[in-house]
Amino acid sequence: MRCSSASASSNANPVIRGLPIMVLFATLLFSRGSASNLDLILAPLDPALVAGPVVVEQPAEPAAAPARRESSQPTEKSPRISREEILDQLTRAFTERLQPVGYLRLHPQRDLPDLSRRPAPARLELLDAPSRLTGNAIMLRFRVEDADGEVGEWHLPFRVQHLAAVWVVDRRLATGDPLSEADFTAREVDLLREAHAVPADPAVFHRYEPARPLVPGRPLTWPDLAPRSLVRKGEIVDVVATDGLLTINMKALAIQGGALGDVIPLRNLESRRDFAGEITHEKRVRVTF
Q1: Which of 34, 106, 155, 178 is most buried per CB count within 10 Å?
Q2: CATH class given for the domain over 164-229
Q3: pTM of the full predicted structure?
């Protein structure tokens, strides 16, 4: 019986007989592979891989905000329409309309409009004003516009000064005395207070002479003056007589004096006959036949 058992064992399938050996070999192989994989996991990183370029994605840029429309309202630093600018433009517009000798100065009798919230520059249009000055109280109507259009229209009272330099007498002068700039001083006055004062123009001394005595310290006025006599009574004058193409020069006695353009009686020094002639220059008369 034992022999038969041993025989049976020896005659068993060789695959089955070698199975334990194969299981043992696979176990050893698996344990070595697991150890290798674990070593790979625990091994430090390769320096070459760590030193490589690092790419960082930039965040997307935010969309540009839509452009803001500029407002016509003035900012804190932008220029604004001031009352001084309104008064300056109004004065210049009124001066251009009147074209006075000297200059004008306006004094508002009520507050000018407050346009400090409106953007500069502003354009002022003078709508209604006096055509001439008869007193120092006037009314002016005007309109103001800015970049956005019409701002408003106003009708306001003003006190006006008409300032100009005039001649003031320095020394006493008699009627008919020749005038000289050395006898006068130029001084600025309000022509609305000194309505007849003569502006300080040197041409006055060549065209006029005193029509009455002049008192020092007073402005020279137009009633103080008379056209300057280019020919005086009793003077000998040059006479140019023309008759067509014929011209005769002679001397004559002025029976009466006169200014430029005056026709005065004359007397021929040779024939003693009287005739008339027109004064053209100083001590010169023209006669036309």
Answers
A1: 106
A2: alpha beta
A3: 0.60
- Cα(256)–Cα(260) distance, integer angstroms: 13
pLDDT at residue 121, as a whole number: 81
Residue with tokens 């002679």: 250
What is 101-141 written as a DSSP string? SSEEEEEESSPPP--TTSBSP-EEEEEE--SS-SSSEEEEE
Domain spanning 230-288: CATH 2.30.30.760:
yes
Helices (H), 152-230: 204-207
The position carrying tokens 């100009």 is 164
Of 88, 162, 91, 164, residue with least CA distance to 132: 162
- Mean per-residue pLDDT pooled into runs of 10, the chain (289 residues): 44 49 51 50 49 47 51 57 92 96 96 88 92 95 90 96 97 94 96 94 92 95 93 94 90 92 93 94 90
Distance (Å, rounded) from C-alpha 22 to C-alpha 173?
157
Structural tokens at position 257 = 């004096």
DSSP character at residue 70: P
**What sign does the CA torsion over 37, 43, 48, 49 have?**
positive
Distance of CA 49 to the CA centre of its chain: 73
Q: What is the DSSP letter of 46?
A: P
CA distances from 204 to 164, 220, 259 (A): 15, 11, 14
Where helices occur in 11-66 by DSSP H, the ranges are 14-42, 47-50
In terms of Cα–Cα distance, which of 240, 277, 242 is closest to 261?
A: 277
How far CA 25 is from CA of 12, 15, 16, in Å, comes to: 21, 15, 15
